[in-house]
Amino acid sequence: MYPSEIMTILILFHMSHYRDFKNFYLKHIWQYHHRDFSTLLSYTRFISVAPSVLVPLCSYLTQLKGKPTGIAFIDSTSLSVCHNIRIPRHKVFAGIAQRGKNSMGWFYGFKLHLVVNHQGEILALKVTAGNVDDREPVRELTTELMGSLYGDKGYLSQELADDLAKSGVTFITKKRRNMKACMQAEWDKIMLKKRFIIETINGQLKLISQIEHSRHRSIRGFMLTVLGGLIAYCLKLKKPSLEVFYSEDAVPMMA
């Protein structure tokens, strides 16, 4: 099979209603699309050659990234690779995955760090071990960013905000309750409340694009799952978005 055909099947899975790839391949692709792929491989053979398209998938995902609009949101989400009770027996990601903690509790696996614009398009992303601080990859993720970047309390850091300001990025985060009140533009207060857009995107990536599950048998399989799910999301015609327009004075406003 051509690499493009392998990529197509992998991405189609993440756009389907199937919850595991084997059933999708045998009950959907093999039965209904056998003629569309003249050299369709057996399931076992397909699984063995699928990792060969990791680099092309990365390249394709890069091409699908959105463009900065001056309004961006940053967040991270956990990618658990096994149930907590099985952590001591887990071997597939031993030495790679790590224990992490989010608002839902402890998990074992990785973190997906995302930066999106107000149109729901992915601008930058990075996968790290589960124990990496959310603030650590921010500088790397914002190298091509401009305008305002909104994050939650987990990104609070005056040093980080000062560094980003030097490159033209205004980093705005929520304040903790025990912190002194500070002046904040009304627009920024509104945008901080609109952070649900990136939380919605993370939810769609997990529930619809299926980038998280506990059945991985190799690190390459994990990478194929994440890449396929991200590409499937990028190809969606309708993404979570905010209606923002600009006045004659170039002042952003909500519809």
TrEMBL record:
<protein>
    <submittedName>
        <fullName>Transposase</fullName>
    </submittedName>
</protein>
<dbReference type="InterPro" id="IPR025668">
    <property type="entry name" value="Tnp_DDE_dom"/>
</dbReference>
<feature type="domain" description="Transposase DDE">
    <location>
        <begin position="65"/>
        <end position="219"/>
    </location>
</feature>
<dbReference type="Pfam" id="PF13612">
    <property type="entry name" value="DDE_Tnp_1_3"/>
</dbReference>
